[in-house]
Amino acid sequence: MVKYEANLIEQNEDRFLELCIGEAESLKLPLTEDNPQKVKMIFNELIERLKKGRIKFRLNEVERPDLYWQVCNEYITQLNRELESVYDELEDYSLLEP
Question: What is the pLDDT of residue 37?
Answer without folding.
Answer: 96
